[in-house]
């Protein structure tokens, strides 16, 4: 999955797989989490947001099931 580097709050990189609707998030502590069932419109809004950390916290963090990536 291609990752887009960001520097927003605790976010360091974000990526999205449209085929599986999985959003991958890398945090400043190097943790990687995959969020399942994320619509492409949510990805578009996150990836173009001027405040990605706030958008992530408000619209993704507690709305979608997360799984830690090894």
Keywords:
70 residues, alpha+beta, globular, 2 helices, 5 strands, 5-stranded antiparallel sheet, 39% strand
Overall geometric form: globular
Number of helices, counting only DSSP H or I runs of 4 residues or more: 2
Distance between the termini: 14 Å
Q: pLDDT below 50 for ≥5 consecutive residues: which ranges?
A: none
Q: What is the residue-mean pLDDT, rounded to a whole number?
A: 97
Percent range for β-strand residues = 35-45%
Structure classification: alpha+beta
- Sheet having the most strands: 5 strands, antiparallel
- Residues in helix, %: 10-25%
For this entry, what is the oligomeric state of its chains? single chain
**How are the strands of the biggest sheet laid out side by side?**
1-2-3-4-5
Order of helices and strands: EEEEHHE
Measured on Cα atoms, how large is the radius of gyration? 11 Å
Number of strands: 5
């Amino acid at each position: 999955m291609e990752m887009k580097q960001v520097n927003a709050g605790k976010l360091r990189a974000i990526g999205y797989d449209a085929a599986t609707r999985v959003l991958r998030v890398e945090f400043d502590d190097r943790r990687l989490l995959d969020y399942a069932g994320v619509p492409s419109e949510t990805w578009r809004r996150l990836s173009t947001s001027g405040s990605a950390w706030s958008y992530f916290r408000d619209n993704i963090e507690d709305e979608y099931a997360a799984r830690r990536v090894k």
